[in-house]
Write a structure and sequence with these properties.
By secondary structure, the chain is α/β, with parallel strands linked by helices. The chain contains eight helices and 28 strands. Helices cover 19% and strands 31% of the residues.
Length: 417
Amino acid sequence: MAQLTDDCFAFGGALMRIEDAVALIGERLPILAGTEWLPLGLADGRVAAEPVLALHDVPPFPNSAVDGYAIRHGDLSLEGETRLPVRGRLRAGTAAEGISGAGGAIRIFTGAPMPPGADTVFMQEDVRREGDVVVLPPGLKRGANARDAGEDIARGACAIPAGRRLRPQDLALAAASGHDRIAVRTRLRVALFSTGDELTEPGAPLPSGAIHDSNRVMLATLLARLGAEVADLGILRDEPDALAARLRQAAREHDLILTSGGVSTGEEDHVKAAVEAVGALMFWRLAIKPGRPVAMGVVDGTPFIGLPGNPGAVYVTLLFVVRPLLARLGGANDVAPLGQPVRAAFAYRKKAGRREYVRVSVALGPDAVLEAVKYPREGAGVLSSLTESDGLVELDETVIAVAAGDILTFYPHAVLW
């Protein structure tokens, strides 16, 4: 496994914009994931480790796109209807050898090879059959309803680029172009911890002053959806020496260490000291709300990222900071989520110089334009603001106020993971 230097995350400035943080990730970090070969049926959601080239033309031979009659366009009358004798029959899976498409018509079915000499296909519903003769209307263009060899993709062309997260349609194209296996990146092994003396495992009795740990299950499921192999290593208590030992142990067996909580600057935020005891930590005080205290560093050569403790901030920073980090370490060409325009149905004020992600619900307005309604409680610790909203609207650093009717960029929850 590749080892990182302790200064790979070094940066200057008090607050960093998200774009700068993501750019730094792309510039400073190597791909850590290895390569393995998988059957196509097991490769969904994995990342292509190398380009997949077509082993043959797709389709491999000229064929008909419809059920109908294959003819040579030059045999058609320029004046009106054309009458041609039907001289053969071709269905999908049969060979066209010995059948000529010149001077007559060939009854042909979808996917059947075009007979030599034929270059055009009439759809069966557009012609009239009279015994052994077919009557063809005028006006059809040369090449209509006929597929050329390699029309989809030519032999040797790139069917799937390296770095693409594979989808069912990608795997179908790989199969069509001759492959039954594909080289993919191994899943990143992520060690996941929560930190804090106040945390109790879900389902356990709650002592006085305790809360159930909700961040870990949210992070574990989001990380899995983003393609990681997650090791849930439980809750780390606020004991610097024990924290350091657990982090060092995790570094030996994983590609990334991810924690939530304990990364601010309070007296009881012990993650900073623990990471610095076994590596290096450079705080990324991101210009973002929710989620400003995000820490990144290295523990014994393994990248470390510490997220805030509030669930709203955890959600936002995981999707807008950790997601591109996972893509880089895992060899994926990260495609930023595509936002969509919505009309604000609320008014709001914010500070300049900070990007905010506001939780909203959406619905069609009276004029059928999509409108966003702000969730009434905006605290980063309000977990129900994630379950009762449809997604996030993004307010960039230059925005200081939103008025009803403004057009905003909306990210549905489903496009973020």
